[in-house]
Amino acid sequence: MTYVGKPVKRIEDARLVSGEGTFIDDLSPLPNIHNAAILRSPHAHARIKAIFLEEAAKTPGVIGVVVGEHVKALTNPFPVGVKAPIKYYPIAVEKVRFVGEAVAVVVAKDRYIAEDALAKIKVEYEPLNPVVQIEDALSSESAVLHEEAGTNIVNHRVFQYGNVEDSFKSADYIISKKFTFPKVSATPVENYGVIANYTKSEGAYTIWSNFHGPFTLHSVMTAALKVPSNRLRIITPKDIGGSYGIKSGVFPYMVLMGVVSRILGVPVKWTEDRQEHLMASSSGTDRVTWIDAAVKKDGTILGLKMKYADSVGGYIRAPEPACLYRTHSNSTGAYRIQNVKMEAIAVVTNKSPTGLIRGYGGPQHYFPLERMMQIISAELDLDVIEVIKKNLITKEEFPYHTASGGIYDSGDYHKALHLALDSIDYDSFKEKQKAAWKQGKYLGLGFACIVEPSGSNMGYVTIALTPEERAKSLPKSGCSEGATVSIDPMGGITVRISTVPTGQGHETVTSQIVADVLGVDPASIRVIAELDTLTSPWSVASGSYSSRFAPIGSSAVYQAAQKVRLKLLEIAKSQLDTTVDELVMAEGKVFAEKNPSKSISIKRLVGLAHWNPQGLPAGIEPGIHESAFYTLSAAESPNELDLVNGSVTYGFVFDAVQVEVDIDTGEVKILDYTTIHDAGKLLNPNIVEGQIMGGLAHGLGAALYEELAYDERGQFLTGSFMDYLCPTATEIPNVTIKHIETPSPLTPLGAKGLGEGNTMSAPVVIANAVTDALKPFNISIDQLPLSPDRIWSKINNKKTMQI
User: Fold this and answer.
1) I want to staple 205 with a disulfide (CB 3.0 to 4.6 A). Which of 42, 150, 258, 693 is the partner?
2) Could you write out the DSSP letters of every residue in 47-112?
3) pLDDT at 123
4) Which residues does 244 contact at the CB level (< 8 Å), separation at least 6?
5) What distance in Å separates the CA atoms of residue 542 and residue 484, rounded to the nearest whole number?
């Protein structure tokens, strides 16, 4: 490989830094586009008694107002992958269930008129008791959000693997803890945007949106719109201002604006503002976890019992409750634990609905799991590194089969751990820490091991159903992705991908792969990243999620390029009077390996395919246009024992973080952050570094700053960046990044996913470091974010108790 694995500069950056990017707000695909504004509920839970639209409708420039009853008449509730009878429409119907839920849509000649008209709509509400906290939703005494369900528990499953009860009976210690993870957003630079047009003559919807997939939601949208799948065309621009998962949550607005366009007979454009995004777009789930560990005196973990409950907000909507099950296959993380009991619960609460967000389920899972490793070492008075080593999977055990069905493809976790320890000089830090405590300075060192799943198996979501329920429905498996490579009659190479990149550099890496396969310069290749569901090579599993480009998307590109290569070699074989095995493709030509003077240019071979099809060898079709769809056999459906390999590749992250805690203010200062990654073969080291830093910034936010907060009445408290704090460049610490590479034996390039690991590791490794710093106060962190007031309160409560 000449280009793959090299730090090739990103080709996307030229247009982005020069102002030539194409975002949703840059598009004006149709004439007569009107603008929409949304009236939102001020109540967390209330019945809608009446809506008075007359004054708004009479506003000059307004062409119509749409409410829930209008939308309900033309749509079905969105389908969801659980049996709970929850009806979710893209606008409130009869009840509102979270602050910010859409109640009415005004469409006018411009956004200013539409916004003014919103103030003229009067809504009569009957307030109801809200359910805000997860533990309240678990109670049978709480108000029920969806009467047809009769409960706020919308999914509940219990799994048991190995011999859990015996492991607990033979344990020397049973250690039990409870942990709380906050509801957080992704805060992309660009918020949601939709342009929708209904064509009456075709009975078809065309929707332009910065929707990034996954395309399982295409079927969800067509079901809601009650149209055949080829009557919903989704077009995504090549630049969508970041996503980190959250822009899959735009799909209800895509349906809503499509229906509004149908009702009012004009194309409709809606652009979300920042307050709307924080209040009502989507978020990660908040979670409460109860965990019990059965442990031997030497620190060996014999078994785990984990009960976790997620709040999915006012409605459960696709792809939920997948957050509960995303880490099911790697539920024991990097550790050799074969006895596991898991109880997974999803509840509805009067908060905004949830969905995909970077690390999906990983931060919520690893916070309690990796906190327990430190807690176990403290309870047993053992060094935390020795406890980690004792339980860590060894190199010789790969491919490692987890208790719940995961198949870790490759790794050397101990090598990564030792590389981290060598980087930070563990022993000298412990001495420095003791000296600092004596001087009133509180230094701490935390560790975290993260198995990073990538290339998700579509079938993992069905683990939400019992084996009996799964048997009655269509089996789901696989991780397929498509790509097309074509060469025009003049030799121009074009690649069309369906991974819907959101800033990760897919275009650059795609050009590197195709350049290596075809022996050409990457600069000669044009990559088309805009997605069109009527013309792009997509599948139901396509899209940008689960760090799937490196293991799956790149493999589809590689296979499509290989098809083109083989076709060119077959043509060259007849021209050079040799066999394919003797030919080499490099530097823009094909030549005989043992006789390089015997050659022909790729451009001429392409010319033969287009201009002289009669001269092609028998069985070779004219033209150069090849598509490939890639999947892996490891992505099978769950079996009758609820075993499932939820991803096809598994990377590894080992973090070591040094902090200082100011006990007078509660402020946490990160002194140094060391992160070791194993993502198999690195396709482009420059892009890898950027992805790691992005994931780390997300993780720091959840650790120290970010929380979508609500009061006891369900009122939203963090509706702007004045209240919802995000880390900026000045908050990013000194970061040392190092790599080991254990290539995946499953993917053609040996690559695994990367970019979400530190989102999963940063919250818990910082919590571990802060706990270590506050060891003299016997404080243990069990809740995030670690805001100064929360830490200060813990410290002062301890001081008061000591007095």
Assistant:
1) 258
2) EEEEEE-HHHHTSTTEEEEEEHHHHHHH-PPPP-SSSS-----SS-BSEE-STT-EEEEEEESSHH
3) 98
4) 186, 188, 357, 358, 502, 694, 698
5) 14
> Which tokens go with 501?
């990149």
Helix or strand (DSSP H, E) at 794: helix 788-802
3-class DSSP state for residue 657? strand
With contact defined as beta carbons under 8 Å apart, do 512 and 4 qualify?
A: yes
Place of tokens 């240019």: 601
Q: Give ∠ CA 744-328-635 in degrees, rounded to 5.
A: 45
**Do residues 481 and 552 lie in contact, with contact meaning Cβ atoms separated by under 8 Å?**
yes
CA distance 371 to 380: 14
What the block records as the tokens of 181 is: 């993870």
d(CA 199, CA 711): 44
Domains in the chain and their CATH numbers? 13-128+186-280 (3.90.1170.50), 359-453+649-802 (3.30.365.10), 481-630 (3.30.365.10)
Q: For residues 384 and 417, give the distance between their C-alpha atoms in angstroms, rounded to a whole number.
A: 12
User: 800: how many CB neighbours lie within 10 A of its CB?
Assistant: 8
Contacts of 144 (CB under 8 A, 6+ apart): 150, 151, 152
Which helix H or strand E contains 471, and what residues bound it?
A: helix 467-471
Task: Identify whether the C-beta of residue 478 lies closer than 8 Å to the C-beta of residue 459.
Answer: yes
Query: Does residue 797 carry a pLDDT above 90?
Result: no
Taking only the tens place, the pLDDT of each residue in 726-781 is: 999 999 999 999 999 999 999 999 999 999 999 999 999 999 999 999 999 999 99
Let me know the angle formed at the C-alpha of 518 by 515 and 524, rounded to the nearest 5 degrees: 45
Q: In this predicted model, what pLDDT tens digit does every residue of 199-217 receive, in sequence order?
A: 999 999 999 999 988 899 9
- Which residues make Cβ contacts (< 8 Å) with residue 621, sequence separation at least 6? none
Amino acid sitting at position 262: R
Give the residue-averaged pLDDT of 382-393. 97
Could you list the beta-strand ranges (E) of 683-755: 735-740
pTM of whole model > 0.70? yes
pLDDT band at 801 (very low <50, low <70, confident <90, very high): low
Please enumerate in sequence order all residues whose Cβ is within 8 A of that of 677, keeping only pairs 6 or more positions apart, or say none: 416, 651, 652, 653, 688, 692, 737, 738, 739, 740, 754, 757
